[in-house]
Amino acid sequence: MSKKSGQLSSNISKAVSEFLDKADNLPKAHEGGRSGKLVFVMDATASRAGTWDMASKLQGEMFAKSSAVGSLDLQLVFFRGYNECRSTRWLSNPMDLLRLMSKVSCLAGQTQLERVLKHTIAEARTTEVDALVYVGDSMEEDLDTLGALAGELKLHGVPMFIFQEGHDVIASGAFRQLAVISGGAHCTLDHNSPQQLGQLLNAAAVYAAGGRGALDEHARLTGGMAGKLLKQLK
Predict the structure, then answer these.
(1) Alpha-carbon Rg for the chain in angstroms
(2) Cβ atoms 74, 41 nearer than 8 A
(3) Closest Cα to residue 74, out of 36, 21, 103, 101?
(4) Are the C-beta atoms of 121 and 156 separated by less than 8 Å?
(5) What's the pTM?
(6) Could you tell me the domains of the chain?
(7) Which residues of the chain carry a pLDDT beneath 50?
(8) Three-state SS string across the chain, please?
(9) Which of 68, 88, 116, 149 is most buried, by CB atoms within 10 Å?
(10) How confident is the model over 172-207, as pLDDT tens digits?
(11) In angstroms, what CA-CA distances link 66 with 29, 33, 145?
């Protein structure tokens, strides 16, 4: 590791530590002590294998960061292969999520965002869902249909945080529109960038657990990708 990279890593670690130290004074978004709820969606088609493994390693940190501002329940949704789209129960233990993710292998197939959004809307009709995180690299569906569903998510108060790997122009345009319609945010990742993905997942988890106030403080302390998300939220 270069001296410059080491210093950057040290600065990020220091900022995160400061955030955790101050977390007890952050505003709690959820009355009655309810847990924040985050739908975590992964594209598990063949091109996603590397990012799937990366996210599996980072997901424990998502729970750790969010626990500083409130408890978090997370539901994993993934699609792959031919018409396969599955969801887990709501999970509050990072080890349960890790065990489930370790059993999934990526298979060639097309995107199934329409099914994912319909599933999330159905969940939001029965319980309060605070955010949806989607990690993917392409979009192969009708944008008008997805846009209408993103609008329904907005009505339910569920912003989409879309983290795009790579720079596919068609996907970028579609993801940006869906994020805006839902009241969320869209960010692009460099291929195989665990630091970027980790920062974004942590920021989304903090938002789901503690709301806009918690994310605002998190972005103030850490900057970087959390700040990029905050600037886009409506």
Answers:
(1) 17
(2) no
(3) 36
(4) yes
(5) 0.78
(6) 33-232 (3.40.50.410)
(7) 1, 4-13, 15-28
(8) CCHHHHHHHHHHHHHHHHHHHHHHHCCCCCHHHCCEEEEEEEECCHHHHHHHHHHHHHHHHHHHHHCCCCCEEEEEEEEECCCEEEECCCECCHHHHHHHHHCCCCCCCCCCHHHHHHHHHHHHHHCCCCEEEEEECCCCCCHHHHHHHHHHHHHCCCCEEEEEECCCHHHHHHHHHHHHHHCCEEEEECCCCHHHHHHHHHHHHHHHHHHHHHHHHHHHHHCHHHHHHHHHCC
(9) 116
(10) 999 999 999 999 999 887 765 667 777 888 888 888
(11) 12, 14, 32
Distance CA 175, CA 139 (A): 8
* Contact in structure between 41 and 134 (CB atoms under 8 Å): yes
Tokens of 31: 């009355």
Distance, in Å, from the CA atom of 210 to the CA atom of 202, rounded to the nearest integer, reads 12
Cβ-based neighbours of 206, under 8 Å, separated by 6 or more = 65, 66, 68, 69, 214, 215, 218, 226
**Which candidate, 85, 82, 64, 63, places its Cα nearest to that of 74?**
63
User: Which amino acid is present at 95?
Assistant: M
Q: What are phi and psi of 137, to 5 degrees?
A: -130, -5
pLDDT at 44: 75
pLDDT, tens only, 143-180: 999 999 999 999 999 999 998 887 889 999 999 999 99
Q: Which amino acid is at 90?
A: W
90: left (phi over 0), alpha (psi -120 to 50) or beta: beta
Alpha-carbon dihedral angle through residues 79, 34, 217, 207, given to the nearest 10 degrees: 20
